[in-house]
Write a structure and sequence with these properties.
Layout: E1 10-14, H1 19-28, E2 33-38, H2 63-68, E3 72-76, H3 82-93, E4 97-100, H4 104-107, H5 114-120, E5 125-130, H6 145-151, H7 176-199, E6 203-208, H8 209-214, H9 220-227, E7 242-247, E8 250-255, H10 259-268, H11 283-288, H12 290-301, H13 306-315, E9 320-322, H14 326-330, H15 333-337, E10 341-346, E11 350-355, H16 379-385, H17 390-398
Parallel strand pairs: 1-2, 1-4, 2-3, 4-5, 5-6
Antiparallel strand pairs: 7-8, 8-9, 10-11
Helix pairs in contact: 1-7
Length: about 400
């Protein structure tokens, strides 16, 4: 088998929930050797979040944890104890990178001080993922996924459109802010490791979740200086159709703002009489009169099935997309044909399917080599490599260090 893309890269990961875990997972699945540090007893807080098989909470069966921690070795270690810090430093001595998502207020007590750690390993790349970064007036503020999205400006843009002014902004489902921060942390870590090839020096990477989210606001930052307007979920779109519409068995997103696209969709609808009205003459008029046009489209579309409408519109080169539910995605023939879902056998849950290969290498294959670790599963193996005997490991465990 060809060498994996990150074969030989050694990563130490510590933190809670999504951001650091996802950053390290992306690298582990490409072949990096990742050691995940969890707090003794409780473990990663992701273990306390579902979904769980049968809806029965169990620290070894969290779907979130199992997905985020494939291909990692798992150890327990109390970083607040001196003996824990000693082992931590020994782990870092031969590591290429440390990735964590502990809050700035916790970093000092956990020994996450780059100026000290670079003395342990001058080549170390340390990536710190925090809500607002490691500088600035808000660096010590706490944040959940909801507050991160709000601070990043995205909840204001997400939710109902015109006519829903009384409804609140919305955040995306789950802990998507952590995933966005994790992707950026993984890329930045790889960039620093690449730079190290020429500089022969490590460095400290400061990842602000707020900034990761603000960076994907697309053109909203340009709207004010260019046009003098603020982007808003409540704004009327100047051109239409560009909206979600409901079929009899699901939803579609219709985007036919070019004249040839609009004419193609009228053909799909057998050219209804109302289409000749002057108020629908072009995309600007259709946008200005969307309150009149949308019900006419909806009346016809609600009698159609998603698949039939999609096939007919595609044949006329009309941009249209089914709005996939989670069940739709799991049974999607295209994803199955590409082998997207991976079956992972875990000792506590048995075989389950998870999102799998998101990048395909022609020469350095992606692979799930092991399922997510049980809490402290690799203590003996990892600490044994550091020279600890089984008796020493048991002694540290009895003292709450492991």
């Amino acid at each position: 088998m060809a060498e994996r893309a990150l074969e030989g890269v050694r990563i130490v990961e510590c933190g809670q929930n999504v951001a650091a875990a996802y950053a390290a997972k992306l690298m582990a699945d490409m072949g990096a050797d990742v050691v995940k540090i969890e707090e003794p007893g409780r473990g990663d807080l992701a273990r306390q979040r579902g979904p769980y098989p049968g809806h029965i909470p169990h620290p070894e069966k969290s779907g979130l944890f199992l997905y985020l921690n494939t291909n990692k070795q798992g150890v327990t270690l109390d970083l607040r104890q001196a003996a824990g810090q000693d082992l931590f430093h020994r782990l870092l001595k031969d590591a290429d990178a440390l990735i964590h998502d502990y809050h700035p207020a916790e970093m000092a007590s956990l020994g996450l001080d780059y100026s000290a750690l670079e003395k342990v390993n001058p080549l170390l790349v340390m990536t710190s993922i925090t809500p607002f970064g490691l500088s600035g007036p808000r660096m010590n503020d706490q944040a959940t996924d909801l507050t991160s999205w709000s601070a990043g400006g995205i909840t204001y843009l997400n939710g109902g459109g015109p006519g829903t002014e009384e409804m609140p902004p919305l955040k995306p489902f789950g802990q998507q802010a952590g995933y966005q921060a994790g992707v950026n942390a993984s890329i930045a870590t790889l960039g620093a490791l690449f730079a190290r090839l020429s500089t022969n020096e490590g460095q400290h990477i400061d990842i602000s979740t707020q900034e990761c989210l603000a960076s994907i606001l697309e053109f909203t930052f340009e709207l004010y200086p260019y046009m003098g307007i603020f982007a808003s979920r409540l704004g009327q779109k100047p051109i239409q159709p560009l909206d979600f519409l409901e079929c009899k068995d699901g939803w579609i997103f219709l985007c036919c703002v070019e004249e040839h696209q609009w004419k193609g969709f009228l053909d799909v609808m057998d050219n209804p009489e109302w289409a000749g009205e002057a108020i629908f003459a072009d995309r600007v008029n259709r946008g200005a009169n969307w309150d009149a046009l949308k019900p006419l489209l909806q009346d016809w579309i609600q009698e159609q099935s998603v698949k039939d409408l999609y096939d007919k519109a595609q044949a006329k080169r009309v941009p249209i997309a089914p709005v996939s539910s989670m069940g739709d995605l799991f049974n999607n023939a295209h994803l199955k044909a590409r082998g997207f879902f991976a079956t992972i056998v875990h000792p506590e849950t048995g075989p389950l399917q998870y999102p799998g290969e998101i990048y395909k290498f022609s020469e350095s294959p992606w692979a799930i080599r092991r399922p997510a670790p049980l809490l402290g599963q690799h203590n003996a193996e990892v600490y044994g490599r550091l020279g600890l005997s089984q008796a020493e490991i048991e002694n540290l465990k009895s003292r709450g260090v492991l």
